Amino acid sequence: MIKVSNLYKRFGHLEVLRGIDCHVAPQEVVVVIGPSGSGKSTFLRCLNLLEQPTAGEVVVDGVNLMDPKTDINKVRQEVGMVFQRFNLFPHKTALENITLAPIKVRGMTQHEAEEIAHNLLAKVGLSDKAHAYPDQLSGGQQQRVAIARALAMRPKVMLFDEPTSALDPEMVGEVLSVMKDLAREGMTMVVVTHEMGFAREVGDRVLFMDEGRIVEEGTPEQIFNYPKNERLKVFLSKIL
Amino acid sequence: METVISSLPVLLLGAVKTLQITAISVFIGCILGLIAGLSRLSRNRVLSFLAVCYVDFFRGTPLLVQIVIVYFGIPQILKDIQNQLVQAYGITPVFENIPIFLAAVIACSLNSGAYIAEIFRAGVQSIEKGQMEAARSLGMTHGQAMRYVILPQAFKRVIPPLGNEFIAMLKDTSLLSVIGFEELFRRGQLIVGATYQAFQIYLTVAFIYLVMVVSFSRLVDYLERRLKTGD
Known about the structure:
The complex is a heterodimer.
Chain A: E1 2-11, E2 14-24, E3 29-33, H1 40-46, E4 55-60, E5 63-64, H2 72-77, E6 79-82, H3 94-104, H4 110-123, H5 139-151, E7 157-161, H6 169-184, E8 188-192, H7 196-202, E9 205-210, E10 213-218, H8 220-225, H9 230-239
Parallel strand pairs in A: 3-8, 3-9, 6-7, 7-8
Antiparallel strand pairs in A: 1-2, 1-4, 4-5, 9-10
Chain B: H1 2-41, H2 45-60, H3 63-89, H4 100-125, H5 129-137, H6 142-172, H7 184-195, H8 198-227
Helix pairs in contact in B: 1-2, 1-4, 1-6, 1-7, 1-8, 2-4, 3-4, 4-6, 5-6, 6-8, 7-8
């Protein structure tokens, strides 16, 4: 589903990604962990070209993103993204947040889009909040609406960029449980997170990044119980 | 006091003209400002350079000078060109002079547009980067994201500074007196010329400006409060 080879990203003199190779199979849940500044978010943002890679190749669902002829807007329709800070549109209700792109981008009728939106709101447990504005919702509720918004485009892949990092602790669970449901339904997911419990429970594979490289990867069992790399051992000893 | 009362109708009609020219100029200024402000943010270098030139010129020179250029300067050049054409090709001259009202609208609109361009630019830039990213991540084009996500939020934020621009323009239209446009201040001048009651008349003029400005700024406050929801 996603194939990344030799990916580099530089911001001026700062080399954030230094040669990333990885692939994500359909229906696989890949969790990316690592210390801050290791390039996890940048890596994730290269997968839908929110960051333009400096060099390397990113292929999503058979489409080479680095090819200048690729219509990135088409690709992004198939790649949903959930942000750390939710980024809901504050001037629109929960329902309108979800229906905007399906109507304007996919060309759905309002009726169709609203039907999908209501189903998704039910799925994330917010049926009663359809007409609430983002500032009337808690952080956890906003993030669930944001997930529904991304899902409304019926993407083939979902990217999660530290989706629970900006939440109060008691709201983390409700967001993670929506993500677990999604994984169980077979959604292909790439998740950058500090939630080691989630990585262990839901991840098919865990990537540990440090200083712009994938230093170690393996099943959650391997990564958490039998880490080989020294940096990973230090990281885990601090975080667990 | 009697002079003040008897000149009030004339002054109030002047105030109406002041409001008229301000409203028209700020309205056209909004259109110019939106175009120039978005051009300035555009990735097209030529477009953004042109926008910078426009904004810098009209913010960097006094409105008074702009008014006389539009009313005295440009017609002169046009007439010179016309004369040459008349001599060269024997065409009949058509251009005589630019009407005062038109000159006033052109000068004030161009000036206002430059300030409003900056207001719109700041408004768009004040919208959190994540909004554009979220919109683009859903597959929207840059234009769609601007239209459906960024601009609707930016418009709410620019209302207070747009109100300030309106107020500034309302007062600055007094400069149109130099080309004989009979707005509030010019009418005051004319009355003073006839009655020699400078203190009373100019004080009345000032008071009328004050009433207009204060009531308008209350209106903006009210609008601002009403639009607060959802941001």
